[in-house]
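Entry 12.
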Amino acid sequence: MQDKLQKLLDEYQENYNRFTYGHYLDPNNIEDAIKTGLVGCYYLDQGYLPEKRQAIGQVLALYDKYWGNKLKFGFLDGNPNQLHPYQKFSIDKKQDLINNYAFETLNFYWSNVDNLEFVPEYFIETFSKPEWYEKLHQDITYVQLYLPISELKEFGVEQLIALNQQISEILQPMHGFFGLGIQHSHEYYDYQYLEYELAHQFLGLDISNDEDDEHLRDGFKCINWLTILSDQLITDKLGSLETLKERNNDNEIRFYPYTGGVVVRAGEVPELGDVASNPYPKHYVNVNALLKPARAPEIASLGFGSINGEVRFNNRTSKEWQSRFDDVEATDIAVSHEQQSAEVINMDSKVRISIQTGQLCPHTGVYSAQINGKVEYRELIQGYKVEPFIDSETQQVYNDVTWQLLRREDGGNVFRD
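Predicted 3D structure (tokens):
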């Protein structure tokens, strides 16, 4: 596993500038507007109950135990306009204050940054509405946390899995996830177009910006390295844990039960899912197929409306993102069992449907191309001529580009017959 972990950390560093954007408000180029790291989120029903609020306080104390020294500023009363030093209140006092919000909106946010415009590396947040609001609007409570990817090595892979078991046992969520995702600031709305681009460049990344979505009452949002399922969700949608284990044919999909549910692990370490090299990691594809019946049939849009013509997620593309691991060929490389050598073979030997500038698009969907050393994406529509590509930064026009089909809107095959 150490080799796989080091390979992931190396891949992360090599691609760091592809998924990290410095913030224009920081002339020193230290603070970021968007970045990638470890993201966990746990979705709760009836989060307004006093025992649920107490459980949320326990999880804050658990995060504080390991990373409290990293947290600097935030708020406890839902007011982002008035930040407080994290150490201003003891963890016992914070838990008392959380319990005092037992029947009101509970919203706290603690991170390692002193400006909510910037993206934190260490962060924990909760948003929970009162009973009357939840029953009327069906919003759900969530607890979300961030960690830098370095914690896979520093805290430990197995320790992070055990921590997710512990958090899940405390919170008793309907479902949840933990793995690589896009980390954003409290003021994330301006950067949804960047999230859209990154989500189509790295398919292993979670997009987490609508966590109280009522659709998540019907199932989990999407798989990740760790997917958390309650016993109730398993019973309702998957039969039983034993049945799930019997259906599993991938020895790197592992199950970590806790009282009230199970954590399902897809492979030794998280995956970036870089479309340029390994868009459909084998274990992600397999765990997606295994757990798909328990997935929410739909989710709310992961983006708001465009304000300046930029592309953001809409309802259709959000659904496509949610189902991006459905009915695809895994692209992991694997050791050939026919040979004793370390020779590797590529599992994705098929040729993707491609189209050149000036040709008529054969299938509506998402296409990618390598242009001037970067991976670019376009949504093309069947029957329309593919127009030249114009670089948004340099305004250079590219008249000879070959686009490869990544996902068809009609769900059809993306490979040539």
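Annotation: The first strand starts at residue 21 and ends at 22. The chain has a mean pLDDT of 88.
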